[in-house]
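Progress narrative, work stream C.
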Amino acid sequence: MSDFKAIEISDILGLSKPLEKLLDCISSACGKIYEPKHIKRMAEAHAEEIKTLSDSLKDNPDLLIKYDHGTLSIENYPVIERAKQRFLTQEIIKQNNIDNIIKIAACELNNETIVSDEPVDKTWLLRFFKSIEDITEHEIQVLWGKILAGEIKQPNTVSLRTLDIIKNVSRNEALLFNDISIFALRHENSLFLPKYTDLLEEQNIFYSSILKLEEVGFMTTSVVTLEIPITENNDILCYNNNYLINAKPKSNSNIIKIPVYCFTTSAQEIISIIKPINNNNLLKSYFQYLNEDNKKFDFSILKITEINENKQEISFYDTPITNLDLL
């Protein structure tokens, strides 16, 4: 069962700007399907019935056709009814999937007060709503709902390429991505896991899991070496949403090299939307590893107070954390 409280679309009309923008996006991509237009629905149902008969005639020319008092019918009633029932069932499932994801997006936007005035791209909206028709798993619906809300708040956050990737993600793959992304560390525009097998396996992160995420399109197994210059004005080595590791050189050395597994651009877009709650254990283990393995620098952990992603600025307390059990 959903953890989100039920929000009917009719209940949010006229409320906050974010929710009004959500309705505009729905109307732009789907039409005003949440307004009670009974006549329109009846007309569309009648048109679909005619189309079903027409298609049946094309595919089955030997069927017996009857015309009685202005009514066209086919003498294979059970087959036609089964076809109509199948079509109706599939469309109801699709509509329920769309409705669930819209409600999740509405919940995400319900407490927001500010959204960008920039409209969401029409092509993006059409691709989005086409992609979510067949999404029935709740966990994946939550992901799509957050993506829609995030794109409404700030358009161009999630690319069309990323939508295509997520469309093919299974429930287990999404859960695996969530389990691993909570350990992600960042340096400037790079989001990564340090490639130290012992440290990763301590957190139940195995190469086979990274390989699966590479197949999905979320990570790369090719090892990249980050070369990070450490200066007086730039001493942040890496960070998550809670803490950062900084470094102070003891000698003339001012470059630290980190072998890493990188998250892809699509994965970074998703993480920026869902904002997973970080697990600090990998950062703590990596800090301990650095102190033991790299004697040319002094390392410390500092508590982050604010991250401004647009300006790439980090605010933090100056006092290092000495008791790592507090992390």
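Work stream C, second folded protein:
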Amino acid sequence: MKKILFLTNGKNDMVKIQEYGNGIYAYPVYKYNSKIYKIFIKVTRKVHCDIILKYVLGRWTRKIENYDIIVCEGLKGKKWVFEYLLKYKRNDTKIIMWHWNKIFKNEIDPNDAIAQQCEQWSFDPDDCEKYHFKFNTQYFSKINLNENLEKKWDVYFLGTDKNRTEKLLKLEEIFKLLGKKTNFHVVKSSLDKANPRITYKKNISYKENLENVIQSNIVLDIPISGQRGLTLRVLESLYYRRKLISFNDYLKKEFFYNDNNILILNERDLDSNIAINKIEEFLNKPYQDLKENELARKYFSFVEWILRFGNG
């Protein structure tokens, strides 16, 4: 049995830090989450004190040789992790750089020398084709929450601006016309230009985000331009049995697609009365939790997802 390690972001990651059985392990990159601790690690890396790193980072540094496959997110801030893994891994250990975002400014350049020494995978079919990555789906792992929270909103969206302002403003107007309450939680990132038409909100934890999902009837999904891969919003709606409104037309090809549960819109709809009519009709349909939904929840689970790396 292959031993597979996933390096998590720590206690706030939706992937629990534990041994999952079937040779699957999830350990955090950092032993502690404090800023002072991370500054100390950064200084230690810069002076190349790998012996110290081995004992002050997560337990993965002391067991690298035990794993056949090691998976880590391909963010620029994690580049040093790949350098460390490539330096100390077994010769036959496969290091996987997992791009769970579209290739953008925050991702390690796929042509970078470090990236080229890893096996690169992505959730987005177009990026797989463009950069010759291997494909794996998005994944989801439920955390312990009170799923009986009182409903507060009809429609919920969480995300950074990323040129989604106009869609959000038009949709907010439509939902107001339909008498529906929205919670559009737009966060400004360092890559966004401030838009005076949007009231930006502070970052929230992933736990708070999921509580907002639970307290809403519909999750709104607006992928960035050119994205075909599923966002976490799609899986959040699936796992918490909420309806979904999305601008990703490729969802129609998913085996769990059901027009009672998922409404696909496009930009042209927003410039006419088509969107109002489609949304109003969609709101009147009951949610259907069919066997395909249950199969999808198993398929997109963390354990099933990480096992696919061993088969690729």
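The first strand starts at residue 4 and ends at 8. No further action is required on this item.
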